[in-house]
Design brief:
- The protein is α/β, with parallel strands linked by helices.
- 39% of the residues lie in helices and 19% in strands.
- A 7-stranded mixed beta sheet has the order 8-9-7-10-6-11-12, sandwiched between helices. The protein has a 5-stranded parallel beta sheet with strand order 2-1-3-4-5, sandwiched between helices.
- α3 packs antiparallel against α7, α4 packs across α13 and α6 runs antiparallel to α7.
Length: 332
């Protein structure tokens, strides 16, 4: 498939350079990033191949913009004094993450976003983390493992499916949409999966992640077959080398995801009689349900003592004591 063109036109070359660098680092699926510092240059390039998206600075805007061939044009608004009408407006001086999320979210909902079916560039491994003992370190371990993999050059998507992840407080941010919005969308528009993923994903320490569900009840409402289909679409279409699931029983496809995982990492605490008993119960249940395959690719591990006090900065988990432990666990 030929790359679609995402063009930016602005007279502020420093802004252009910063936005281009951000978009290239974000690695938008199937988009080629182009920059222009003059409208006539954008017009000329679009005549050879029309742009899918064009962001044009309010300061550089002139009537020749009407000659640019583009499916969707946004004005990067600075002060609004030019009185430009007929185009979608974006605040130029805002978080690039928020601005691009807005552009892509509108793009994927627009009829001009044509259906695209493609196979991912990489074989994708599915890795699941789970703790039968409800150990609070499960998410720290899963996200840390994702960061360790990213440090090793892997392309990683982390998905939290646990109730009350606390991510907004931990990362000092807010989310307008979450993983359930992504799932409901792709189940109805499978061929737009990558664009929806690009519009919603956030990044921490080189790891892409989908904002966790605000209400875990929304996860419970997704059926087993829908969970399986959504995961198959992600594994088939995305360019990630690893998808890391931070798993819980809030998913009707819980056992399927464990069974379909290339590896399952089970967090336990052998010094805790209750945690040991819960793990024993979990294994007994897997045998009773004839899920021997899950048992066959399970690795049990513990976190180092006192890990909580040494993992205050969530973006630096890979360099914490938990990171040292997870490097060993992943290397087994």
């Amino acid at each position: 498939m030929r790359a679609r063109q995402f063009a930016i036109c602005d007279s502020d070359r420093q802004y252009l350079s910063m936005l281009q660098a951000y978009l290239q680092k974000r690695k938008l699926a199937d988009f080629e990033i182009l920059v222009f510092d003059a409208v006539d240059k954008a017009v000329e390039a679009s005549l050879e191949k029309p742009f899918e998206l064009l962001l044009i600075g309010e300061g550089i805007y002139d009537t020749d913009v009407i000659n640019v061939k583009a499916s969707k044009i946004y004005i990067l608004q600075e002060d609004g004094l030019k009185g430009i009408t007929g185009y979608s407006m974006l605040a130029k001086y805002q978080s690039m993450e928020c601005m691009i999320a807005q552009v892509l979210d509108e793009f994927v909902s627009d009829d001009c976003c044509n259906s695209v079916e493609r196979r991912g560039r990489n074989p994708t491994a599915l890795i699941s983390f789970y703790s039968p003992g409800r150990h609070r370190g499960q998410s720290a371990a899963a996200l840390c493992a994702a960061q360790v993999l990213a440090d090793q050059g892997c392309q990683v998507l982390y998905i939290s499916l646990v109730p009350f992840s606390g991510f907004e407080a931990l990362m000092n941010t807010s989310y307008e949409a979450d993983v359930t919005d992504f799932l409901y969308f792709v189940l109805n528009h499978a061929d737009k999966l990558l664009y929806k993923l690009d519009s919603l994903k956030r990044t921490i320490h080189g790891v892409d992640y989908l904002p966790p569900a605000l209400d875990y009840a929304d996860l419970l409402e997704i059926g087993r077959e829908d969970w399986q289909r959504a995961m198959e679409l992600l594994l088939y279409s995305s360019d990630y080398t690893h998808i890391v699931l931070d798993l819980s029983e809030t998913c009707q496809g819980f056992y399927d995801m464990l069974e379909n995982s290339d590896h399952v990492y089970i967090l336990t605490d052998n010094s805790n009689v209750y945690a040991h008993a819960m793990l024993s119960h979990f294994k007994k249940l897997l045998l009773a349900k004839e899920y021997e395959k899950i048992l066959g690719h399970m690795t049990e591990f513990e976190l180092p003592q006192g890990w909580e006090a040494q993992c205050g900065e969530i973006e630096l988990l890979a360099s914490s004591p938990v990171g040292a432990r997870m490097k060993g666990v992943l290397g087994r």
